[in-house]
Amino acid sequence: QVELVESGGGLVEPGGSLRLSCTVSRRFFSLNAIGWARQVPGKEREIVASISWRGDHTYYSDSVKGRFTISRDDAKASVYLQMDSLKPEDTAIYYCALDIHSLGPYYATRTVADVDYWGQGSQVTVSS
Question: Using only C-alpha atoms, what is the Rg of the chain?
Fold first, then answer.
């Protein structure tokens, strides 16, 4: 059974910061790429950040590049998304996304079609 448990969502003012965390069942964490996706009502879910299982390759969507930082801690079987300079358009439900069929140790997942397991979702609201 694969479990992805998220924490850290909430309400923040524009320009503020939030940090999302996701803990994964330990046996499924190492050797797999992992990332974060987001979805707003009426739009498709999109990957915003991901990291290879080696931890040395990352992917960021253009909309978050330079503001969000993804990291992983294999000892804790956890992945984090540090979100800085938040904008109202970052408001969405954020999902932890595990890819167990990663295309090698340097691959960071870029599409939702490659995601095998999802977290429960965390609401992030950016508003004054």
Answer: 13
68, 30 contact by CB (below 8 A): no
Q: What single string gives the DSSP state of each residue in 49-69?
A: EEE-TTSS-EEE-TTTTTTEE
pLDDT in 10s for each residue of the chain, 128 residues: 899 999 999 999 999 999 999 999 888 888 899 999 999 999 999 999 999 999 999 999 999 999 999 999 999 999 999 999 999 999 999 999 999 988 888 889 999 999 999 999 999 999 99
- In terms of Cβ atoms closer than 10 Å to its own Cβ (0-12, 13-18, 19+), residue 39 is middle
**Which is it for strands 68-73 and 92-99: parallel, antiparallel or unpaired?**
unpaired
Phi, psi of 113 (to 5 degrees): -65, -25
- Extract the tokens encoding 52: 């290879």
